[in-house]
Write a structure and sequence with these properties.
2 copies of one chain form a homodimer. With 202 residues, chain A is mostly helical. Chain A contains 9 helices and no strands. Chain A has helices at residues 21-39, 46-53, 57-63, 67-78, 91-108, 111-122, 126-154, 163-180, 187-199. In chain A, helix 5 packs antiparallel against helix 9 (187-199), helix 6 (111-122) crosses helix 7 and helix 7 packs across helix 8 (163-180). The longest helix of chain A has 29 residues, at 126-154. At the A-B interface, helix 6, helix 7, helix 8 and helix 9 of A face helix 6, helix 7, helix 8 and helix 9 of B. Chain A binds a DNA duplex (30 and 30 nucleotides) through residues 13-21, 24, 45-47, 55-59, 61-62, 67.
Chain lengths: 202, 202
DNA sequence: AACTATGTGTACGCTGTGTCCATATAACCA
DNA sequence: TGGTTATATGGACACAGCGTACACATAGTT
């Protein structure tokens, strides 16, 4: 189980001495992302990242303040953010599509495990938590709120809705199943979430 | 910052040799719970638990398979489960009360930090994850589903609701704010969650 | 009184962290 | 072209925590 080739496809290490900073940074980030996808946060150590990048630990400590920060950077390097949020004018369809896409990302790729472990790590790493909010959850929440607000303006939803709370009831519900895992995270579940909210329970 | 007295209120250690198993187990669990509330998962180590319990690390390794398992046991020892779920016949009031109580538990006591860190740890500790599901989230989810089912039988809610998904949209939404923390977890938020779902968004 | 189960103290090796040095060399500037 | 500076490198260090092993002490049981 060693699919990670040290220094993949780069010019071989030249021994001691300085290398271009950007190149080193790029190799470290790639190595971090690959290691994250391959082994998850459990096997993610500064030492391993340094080894796979053919770099020295000192360099990593110099550029990243914490293990979590490096992991998050590595994650974004490998998994493109893809923050697009289609707005076709049909809020129910848009929400459903977005949620279903999220469910597939989380279930059918390694990203789900990585996300959950990043969130897990963030519970004891304030810097990582802040970085995660700022770079990941924040922008995504903003896009969803924006879409909901437009739907309210179009009259597809009540105008007095607290759209932030709706985000928690859609994506938060998915994260709940992802993180606790007592029930499966399925496409049907995603559709049911939208249906419950839009139609109401009674 | 050393509020934890070693071996609080127990007969003093008697040096080497065997002590009653039940007594040792009880002292370890108490120490684990107190340490957890005082320092959170970050400062929770087997060594510290052993020190505060006046016990040897070996003993802990003998009885608990992992650090997470010990933490969970310690948590339940100090924070009583309190799984009661009032059923007054008014489903909206019952859900709201239950959610508001949860919000207060999580915000106004140290339990919130501990819960979030236990969930966080569970992301890389399968044994802890299983124990958490079995002993904490599972029973709580079952009680909520049961209450929802009764309300459906009484005709207060539609009969074709998937009550499991509703649980995720109420408690899961709270956990979302607890774990991500980009928006505050307030009593109003809890009320809004119930309102959104019951009335529907349009 | 003997036996067994179990807690205790101590020591060891392992992994990972975070920090320090001296050295080498790329990038920059005169 | 040559000197200066920034930065990457290897290596070493101390520290913490985990998990294990062994010998010894003693409570519970027969």
């Amino acid at each position: 189980m060693a699919p990670l080739t040290p220094n993949p496809g780069m010019s071989p290490r030249r021994g001691r001495g300085r290398r271009p900073a950007d190149q080193v940074r790029a190799e470290i980030l790639t190595a971090a992302g690959e290691l994250l996808l391959a082994e998850g946060m459990a096997g993610f150590t500064i030492e391993k990242v340094a080894a796979h990048a053919g770099a020295s630990r000192m360099t990593i400590y110099k550029w990243w303040p914490s293990k979590g920060a490096l992991a998050l950077d590595g994650y974004f390097t490998v998994v493109a953010p893809t923050l697009a949020f289609a707005d076709t004018g049909d809020i129910v369809a848009d929400l459903t599509n977005q949620l279903v896409a999220f469910v597939h990302l989380v279930r059918d790729t390694t990203a789900g495990r990585v996300i959950s472990q990043l969130i897990g790590q963030a519970q004891t790493d304030p810097e990582l938590a802040a970085a995660y909010r700022e770079r990941y959850s924040g922008p995504r929440r903003a896009l969803a709120v924006e879409t909901l607000t437009r739907a309210m303006a179009r009259g597809q939803l009540r105008a007095d809705i607290d759209s932030e709370s709706v985000v928690d009831q859609l994506w938060g519900a998915c994260y709940h199943r992802l993180l606790i895992g007592d029930l499966p995270l399925t496409e049907d579940f995603a559709r049911t979430l939208v249906d419950n909210l839009v139609r109401g329970l009674r």
